[in-house]
Specification:
Layout: H1 28-31, H2 38-47, E1 49-54, H3 58-71, H4 76-79, E2 84-86, E3 98-101, H5 108-113, H6 117-127, E4 131-141, E5 149-152, E6 161-162, E7 166-172, E8 183-185, H7 213-218, E9 223-224, E10 231-235, E11 241-243, E12 252-261, E13 265-266, E14 296-298, H8 301-304, H9 316-319
Bound molecules: 2-oxoglutaric acid and fe (ii) ion (FE2).
Cofactor: Fe(2+)
Keywords: Dioxygenase, Oxidoreductase
GO molecular function: 2-oxoglutarate-dependent dioxygenase activity; iron ion binding
């Protein structure tokens, strides 16, 4: 970054990258190397997730982990920029789970991460539509006593927006394995419809209350999402996922990017958990979420030109709640 560059405190004022952490494609042809294959797109449609996609180099992971140290000990002022911030959200008193939403507003690396070309290309293909940032999240488990993230569907927490046309990208900031509490997915669960909230950081299996016996049996076929650091998985907003405790000697840190189709509306009029939203940006009922807090990340036709007709992508009508 230019030495004289003095960013304003709230980085949401910058609706494009502020540094050069990611080299951006300049032509349609340069986007091609980030393109998911037909096979990957089909696997997402079928299973509700895909993984093994590199988003960050080791060096970039290093930059983000340095910034993460700062984010985990922010001052009062910066803390106000987060939509949600819990140094320890674990319900088990012997465990720790750092969970924060909004880090992209606070440090340049997390800000620029949302413009990672590998992230943007894959998200465009899996949403099948131009999209905006909904928000980012940090889920960090320390070594030895890292807490769980209970089985859940992301969209059960997001019904204050509509329609359901969202996508989650989970990016490891450590090598994630079953030993240090990697994420798990339940394949095909994105076809089970929307389930109610059953808690995020307490009883791992609370979701059992709202599943049929047959569905619960399918949990036995859950898949560990083991990934080297810098690599990502993508999941549908209804795919059930969760992660167990970390008893290992390594931390398990991750950054999550949540995208929504451009044109997504606010839907909080009848939302029952308004308290949880008090620090979120304004989202008026039936109004397009297009303020600076929801930057437009990829338009597709503008960047891809004629390539747009060749890239494999999801038909939104078959996986999301859109006409
Ligand atoms: O990192 C975790 O264990 C939970 C992540 C999660 O819930 C998500 O990516 O939606
Ligand atoms: Fe989640």
């Amino acid at each position: 970054m230019n030495q004289s560059f003095q960013p304003v405190r709230d980085l949401s004022h910058y609706s494009s990258p502020i540094a050069d952490m990611f080299e951006q494609p300049k032509t349609a042809a340069e986007w091609e190397k980030y393109m998911l294959t037909e096979h990957q797109v089909a696997a997402f449609r079928e299973h509700g997730f895909i993984n093994g996609i590199q988003i960050l180099t080791e060096e970039q992971v290093g930059i983000l982990n340095e910034e993460l140290v700062k984010l985990q000990s922010v001052n009062e002022e910066d803390r106000k920029l987060f939509y949600h911030y819990e140094s320890n959200e674990a319900e088990d008193p012997g465990k720790v789970l750092f969970h924060a939403i909004g880090g992209w507003r606070v440090t340049p690396g997390f800000h620029d991460l949302i413009w990672s070309p590998a992230y943007r290309m894959a998200t465009y293909q899996l949403l099948g539509h131009p999209f905006r940032l909904f928000h980012d999240q940090l889920f960090c488990k320390p070594a030895l006593h890292g807490g769980v993230v209970a089985w859940h569907q992301d969209f059960s927490y997001w019904t204050f927006t509509k329609p359901m046309h969202h996508l989650t990208c989970w990016i490891g900031l450590d090598d994630a394995t079953t030993e240090n509490g990697c994420l798990y997915y339940v394949p095909h669960s994105h076809k089970w419809g929307l389930l109610p909230i059953t808690g995020l950081t307490g009883d791992m299996t609370a979701i059992k209350e709202v599943l049929t016996d047959e569905q619960f049996a399918i949990f036995e076929k859950k898949i560990p999402n083991e990934l080297p650091k810098g690599y990502a998985s993508f999941h549908h907003p209804l795919t059930i996922h969760g992660s167990y405790a970390n008893y290992s000697e390594r931390p398990r840190r991750a950054v999550v990017l949540n995208a929504m189709a451009d044109g997504t509306l606010g839907n909080s009029a009848n939302y029952e958990r308004l308290d949880a939203l008090h620090n979120f940006p304004a989202m008026e009922q039936d109004q397009v979420l297009d303020s600076r807090f929801f930057p437009l990340l990829f338009e597709g036709d503008r960047e891809l030109g004629a390539l747009i007709n060749e890239i494999p992508r999801i038909d939104p009508a078959c996986l999301y709640n859109v006409e």
